[in-house]
Specification:
Number of helices: 41
Largest sheet: none
Radius of gyration: 29 Å
Helix content: 55-70%
Number of strands: 0
Structural class: mainly alpha
Amino acid sequence: MKQIFLILYTLITLYSCVEDPQKLCTALLQEEDEKQQKALSRVALSTSSPWNREAFLIMDLQQSTRAQRRAMRKLFYQGDNDPAFLRLLFREHLLNDSKDLKSMILKAEESTWQQFYLQLYQGTPLDTRQLLQLPQGEELEEADILLSRGYALLEDEPQNRMILDLRLALLKREYGQASQIYEDLLNSYVSWAQDPMLLYHCWYPIAQRSDWNPQLKKLIQLPADPHLSFAIGRIYRYRQQWTQAENWFSIAPLGDRSLWYRIDCLLNQENAELLPQVMESITSMDDLSYFDDQLQQLLYLLISYRDWAGIKTVLIKLLEKEEGFVTSRYIWVMARLQDRGLYDSELFDSQELYRLAVQRDPLGWYGMLAGWVGDTDNPTLEELPEEIQELKDLMNFQASRSRQALPESFLKSPDMVLMSLIYRGMDDLALEYSNLRKPSLSYWSVPTLVSLQLRQQDYYDSIHSALWGEKQDHFIENKRHLQYLHPLGFPSEVKSWAQYYALDPWMIHGIIRVESAYDSNIVSRSGAVGLMQLMEPTAMEHGDLLGLSNPDFTDPGTNIRIGGAYIIWLLNRPYVENLSDMLIAYNGGPGNLQSWKNRMGDLPPEIFAEAIPYSQSREYSRLVFTAVLYYGYLYGNISPEDSLERLIPQYRY
């Protein structure tokens, strides 16, 4: 009787799976009975759905039988597969000792790539965008294949061969060669040289040349076109010829993009007489967040000129827009100017401005500052849900393989494949798979992926996975996600050295989070190394004072130890009056801080922080302090108001 019931159950399950292929992989993943798994596997081998082939191969490749391998071989040859996925399967650690399977995948990959290139290069003439938009991340490894196969398919299309050479030169950053190839295109194939995609890629190689002017003159003589004007503007901008660049951007009607570059050229001239043009352009901005950095730069210039009325003018224009977090900076500054007695505006009341800042940016830096200074209730952080229930259910599913219902969007995406990989202990492959398929994954994969990365102490990628998750559908702000964004990396090292130097551990975590995102091996373009991004001369100097010989700056404990010593050294400088000054000096250099203090030290500290000429240093203290507030709240049970009172009391009194 039991066998009859098992047969009937199998038939019903298989029939429903064939009708809906998505159910097949769901059933295979959830099924705990070995016989049922084998029955479902046979259906997976017989289906023609590429998605199911992929899921089955990932889940059962390592424990496949000889019969299953024969079926797999059939599957590979019966339809087209994703080349990126085939390369993923080619990894040595996944294939074990199965030589015939390895050989089969090699042949399948070669066949697929041939189809890919034939499809890519078919048609006469070719679309240059196809050649210029080859998949990122694989081109350099495949350069020889591109040349050998590409040239064979382009014998009668010299212009396309030139574009292929141009693409490879750009990928290899051989800008001199790229600009020469483009000049040849400009001389021989004028219409091709005007393609917007070519103009987009080639302005930089031209701008870098010492003899850039002759090539630029050829571009100027071409028929007028918005993309051409934009490319010419970018060349002038790179050469810091701001007036000419601004003129070209003004005749390139490409929406916010052209407007951003035009405003950038006006701001870089640091001429007070040009600022009214910038203010006037605010009404033409469609997406305020696109102009956030420029609005910051504009505020810095207005403060440096002591143009308080100009700040009010900008604020009025910004309040007409819907965006909240972009305007909160101006709201905060105007409220503080009034409370400090620097500007009296009958139009605004400071308490109303504080409430407005909280309303527009409740979880942001300026919203939390306004709530603290203005004694305005800001319960948003406390009211956040602990986590999204559906995501919690998925995490429970991963742990227990229960038969609970899964979200529809989860079943219709590769998220199930990622979860099956993690469940089967194939963590390395799961990470590779997530990198290949991240654009196709949904927010349902975020907790699974972040948890995997945290298990491997890959804090940098876990933070970026959380940031990526915020852009997906179904995202709801919650405390669990705040923890994803602020992982507690290297806790023992931070705790011990914070105690040693009598520093706030959340401050050290905040600096590390902003500087390196907990990547201990990271090296910046300027040469800063490790968790706290120490410049080698500074690190060597303070390492010597600590008695360290040949210190390894990538070692977490060593880096935090030297970074803590540097913080203490900065706090003892006579011109460093508070933690805000320390952070500005940490990022911008103590000499620069002293120079800025000499020029603008008469300003209140919270206004001075917005008047730093270097945009990176201007933003640095805001980013670190925000991270400190979240770390204290998430792991120390400290309210943002208590943290602010402890960290920067001078902002309020």
